[in-house]
Amino acid sequence: MKIAIAKLDAALDKFWIGVVLHAYHRLMSAHYRRKAARLAQKVQGRANEIQNPAYQVRAKDQFLSHRHQVLRHDLEAKLIRGETC
């Protein structure tokens, strides 16, 4: 009985890590990639209109943060699948 429970637990762990967590990181990577692209497009479109340097700094910081999240989630997904970086 203990062996069956241990095998079931291992199978659930493998499913959780291999499928669910991998899918989560791929989805979050795509989400932040879209956010970064929208932000870059928004800033480029307003480049001539914006005179406030504080807005430009904040937008750049947000863009870098989104880009960092994309890279982080891509790396997590690769590590879960056992791919080399």
Structural notes for this entry:
The protein is mainly alpha-helical. The protein has one domain. The chain has two helices and no strands. Helix 1 runs antiparallel to helix 2. The termini are far apart. The model has no long low-confidence stretch (mean pLDDT 84).
- The helix/strand class is mainly alpha
Number of strands: 0
What fraction strand? under 5%
Question: How do the SSEs run, as a string of H and E?
Answer: HH
Q: Gyration radius, to the nearest Å?
A: 20 Å
- Domain tally: 1
Taking the sheet with the most strands, its summary is: none
Gross morphology is: rod-shaped
Task: Give the termini distance in whole angstroms.
Answer: 40 Å
Q: What is the typical, i.e. mean, pLDDT?
A: 84
- In the predicted model, the low-confidence regions spanning at least 5 consecutive residues are none
Quaternary state, please? single chain
Number of helices: 2
The helix fraction, in percent, is over 70%
Features:
single chain, 85 residues, mainly alpha, 2 helices, 86% helix, rod-shaped
How would you summarize this macromolecular structure in one to three sentences?
With 85 residues, the chain is mainly alpha-helical.
Write the layout of secondary structure elements.
Layout: H1 2-45, H2 53-81
